[in-house]
Each structure stands twice: as structure tokens, then as C-alpha cells.
Amino acid sequence: MSYSSLTLLVSLSFILVACGPSQSQGAGGAGAAGASMPPPEVSVITVQAKSQPVELEYTGQTAGSRETEVRARVAGIINKRLFVEGTVVQAGTPLFQIDPANFQMQVASTEAAVAVAQAKVNQARRDHARLAPLVAERAISQKEFDDSTSSLESAEASLKQTQAQANEAKLNLSYTRVTAPIGGTTGVATKADGSLVTATDSLLTTLVQTDPMYVNFSVSEGDFLRMNQQVNSGQLSVPGKRTANGSLGFSVKVKLADGSVYPQAGKLNFASEKVNPQTGSFDVRAEIPNPKGILRPGQFVRVQLGGASRANTLSVPQRAVIDSPFGKMVFVVNKDNKLEPHPVELDGWTNGDWIVTKGVKDGDRVLVEGFIKAHDPGMVVKPVPYVAKK
Q1: Which end of the chain is more exposed for a tag (fewer CB within 10 A), N or C?
Q2: Does 120 have pLDDT greater than 90?
Q3: Residue 167 is inside which H or E element, if any?
Q4: 109-116: which pairs have CB atoms within 8 A and are 24 or more residues apart?
């Protein structure tokens, strides 16, 4: 698009603002009034190329760093729930008590079986010891002694079997007290007191470890390729080196739904080496400390990656960029203090300013404040330095 065409479009877009009550005056009167008015004062910023930090921002969702289902290992009736739903528990904390009566009887039965088996072993050992000197004196046949040896070995094997059954019964008895496999926040109990737990219906509750918290997000293939190109060309420098799990040394901040920034900074701990075929993006994960439990699983957040910087970068304040019928644009004040509309191409943020890759050059004066007073291309203005409000 030529400069004259762009100027015409901008003029048409602001025609309603330009028109006012003065149009009722004659041409001479309007000209006289216009000639007598001084140029409007506007705030401008002089664009300077420099190395600037780059902030990359993505949409993410929080998740527990460890999430597990608590299931019963034995079937039975739940006697009592031993925790308060939604509270933090430590690993090993009792959560449910299943009726232990049947399992206690199994333990007693198997212990009695062990005692019987032990008695048989003792008898077999005595018989074997009595026959050993007799076979040496050939008072009995070798077969009789071998039968005695086999009886002893069989008795010892039976003892081991019954001991294993007893240990299994004791283990099942211990499973009637369901404990937390990890530390974390408990979910809703799926079974009430008096409910039957079976092998096919064993889920009792869930546990989520929320300190640290994970934040899962995706980097589009286009962003990834552009970032790689900028890194390889030296335009973009990123912190740290790529680790075995694919992550870089970016600092991670999380912006919450209310616009506030979570006070604890985190780090990347995973970056996928392949594109997710369902999203067309690379899956990335950050780890955020969460000692006070402010973050909860399932929250949607904005993930801000810091630490990267871009050399020879031009940037302008956010308010300097306006939307027009033909895209993003800024007004440049030329050497004659006249306004020139410049379409621009943007690429991310740096300290709250837009990074401009095309449309302005080093040394240009860009209009930041004063659009109400000055909006017509070619209009003469009085530029003053822009002072950012704190």
C-alpha cells in the first residue's frame, strides 16, 4: 500500500472526529480559525534499538505434581472413614478401616496350621536322626533311611507353605487399615461407612500432591520454529542450556485469573521432543512451589517465561499502537513535526511494551499520547518527550 493511499484511509477513518461545529462557518472563517490555532502538543517517544528482555506468555493449566487413587486391597465392609475430606494428610496416614474380623480369623487359622506343620517337621527330624546311625551299621536298609529323608523334606516344605499362607493372612489383615500412599490433599470419599468394597469396586478416594504444583502448557509449532530461528541467528538469547529432559533455564511466573502474579517463581522441568498430534504443539511443563496451597489443580493461568533477551530490538509503549482498518499502526512525527501513519508488525512483549519488527526504525519519534488532539496524517504537532506514569 502506498503512503498516499494509507494517508487517505487514515483520514477517512478519523473523519467523524475531524468534523465539528466549526463546519457551519464559511470557508474563510474556518481557515482563519485554523491558522490562528497553535499546533497541538503531543507526547512522543524516540525509538532506540537496544538489547531488551523478552517475555514469552502462554495459557496453562495447573495440576498436582503427584495424583493417585486410593483403593482397597481387600474386600469387606467399611467400618469407618478416618479423615476429613479436602484436608492435607501425610504419607501413611490412616484413611479407612475395613472390618477386620474375617481376616483376624484367617490369621488365627493359618497360625494354627503353621504350628501343626512345625510339629510334623520336628517329628520328621527326630525320626531321621534316629535312623541315621542305624543305616551306617546296616541295621536298616538304605531305602528306609531315604524314605525318612524324603519325609523330613516334605514336612519342611509343608511348613514353608503354611508360613507363607500365614504371612499372606497377616498382610491382608494389615490391608484392612487403608493408609495414604503419598502425602497430599484428600478428595471426596466414594464410599460411606457400612459400604461394601469389592475387587471390582475398590476406589475409596483420591490424593493430590499440590506442593510443588505442575503447570502444563503448549508451545505452538510456529512459535517453536521462530524461536529456534532467532536463537540460531543470534537475535534471541535464552538462559541456560538444553537439558536431558528438553527444558531450558527460563524463569517461570504465573499470572492468575484476577490478573495478579503468583509470588513464587518456578522453573521448567519438561519439554517434549515431539509434536502432540492432537494439538499440533509441543507439550511443556513447569514446576511451581506452592507451600501455602494458593494454587489449586485445574486452574487456568498465564505462564510467563522470563530470562530471554533480544539484541537490537525496537519497542514502543502499548498505547502507541492503534487498530486501523488495515491492521496495527503507529503515528510517526517526522522532521517537519507532521504526523505519518506507519503500519507495523509486532512480535511479543518486553517490559509491557510491544516489540516492533517492521514499520519503524531507530530514531523515529512515535506518538504515544495525544490522539484526540492529533489524528490526521500530515497534521503539524508540537512533540514533547513522553514520561511514563508510575
Answers
A1: C
A2: yes
A3: helix 142-175
A4: 109/169, 110/162, 110/165, 110/166, 110/168, 110/169, 111/166, 113/162, 113/165, 113/166, 114/159, 114/162, 114/163, 114/166, 116/162
Cβ(56)–Cβ(174) under 8 Å?
no
Residue 229 in grid coordinates = 530461528
| Domain boundaries of the chain, sorted by first residue | 3-21+317-385, 54-65+210-310, 102-162
Asked if 374 and 42 count as a contact pair (C-beta separation under 8 A), the reply is yes
Question: Confidence band (pLDDT; 50, 70, 90) for 74?
Answer: very high
| Euclidean distance between CA atoms 197 and 236, whole angstroms | 58
67: closest CA among 297, 266, 299, 264? Answer: 297
Find out whether 34 and 26 touch, Cβ atoms under 8 Å: no
**Residue found by looking up cell 514499520 in the block:** 359
DSSP assignment letter at 303 = E
At 374, is the pLDDT very low, low, confident or very high (cuts 50, 70, 90)? confident
For the purposes of burial, counting CB atoms within 10 Å of the CB of 179, is it exposed (0-12), middle (13-18) or buried (19 or more)?
Answer: middle
**Comparing 3-21+317-385 with 102-162, is the CATH topology the same?**
no
* Residue 179 to residue 109: CA distance in whole angstroms: 26
CB 280 within 8 Å of CB 221: yes
Please tell me the CATH code under which domain 102-162 is placed: 1.10.287.470
The CATH class that applies to domain 54-65+210-310 reads mainly beta
Q: Considering the domain 3-21+317-385 in this protein, what is its CATH number?
A: 2.40.420.20
pLDDT exceeds cutoff 90 at 295: yes
